[in-house]
Please model this.
Amino acid sequence: VIGDYTDFYASIDHATNVGRLFRPDNPLLPNYTYLPVAYHGRASSVLVDGTRVRRPRGQIKRADPTPVYAPTEMLDYEVEIGMWIGGGNELGVPVPIEQAEEHLFGFCLLNDWSARDIQSWEYQPLGPFLAKNFATTISPWVVTADALAPFRAPLRRPADTPASLPHLRSEENERSVAFAITVEASLRTGNLSEAHVLSRASFERMYWTPAQMIAHHTSNGCNLRPGDVFGSGTVSGPSEHERGCLLELTSRGADPLLLPDGERRTFLEDRDEVTLHAFCERDGFRRIGFGTCSGRIVPA
Ligand code: CA
Model:
């Protein structure tokens, strides 16, 4: 059973790519390198792999001054890693960064379905609401943090970024707290029998680590409980094939994707099926797969 669900924004490449669409000269907001930005999501609509996703209706503002209530025309997915919280903390007692991973039970795949046209009208000033809470799909099993021990890596950040504040920093955290998980998104349209890979990126490049997300989330005394789920935020990388959502892949619909059978996509159409996969691989160790996280769009 899902407890509370929180969605982060931990990939600096994703934040930069998306920021550039709206603020070309100043893509990253000043808080980005100091705190793992997040919002509270909706647990009731977290779905398991294979559940169909109904195209949501919502308020959409086009050229006309008055918005319309209509099915979204900009339905997107976001490739994310989900993190299951075990343990938890008492209300009022922050989890120190050094102990944060003791509260991390394990990982899954997570697709944060997003309606971009609804989102752009509703999100200011309080952030995403109905553009994201109609569905979130997760993979059906948990890969424990212990199982990923061979795939840990040091924290690597761009050289021009500041050190985290002391409550979000520990030497141990920085030595071995990134996880080298490769994530992949693929699309099967109603007409394509084969799935087409849209992107492949590494969770290792995330700017914020799971431990830092836990420490930050509890830093004001907010209590986490067993069964809570975090979304990492879209996992993207610097190059084009590493972009973990259609918003990035098509520059908000300006550059349609050309699929192998000649179809074009700006955003998802009815009968499209998006599947996420992830794996860890290293010589001398057993390969670890994350199962599938899949959903097919049905009409509004
Ligand atoms: Ca997200």
Remarks:
- The helical segments are 12-22, 116-122, 171-176, 210-218, 246-249.
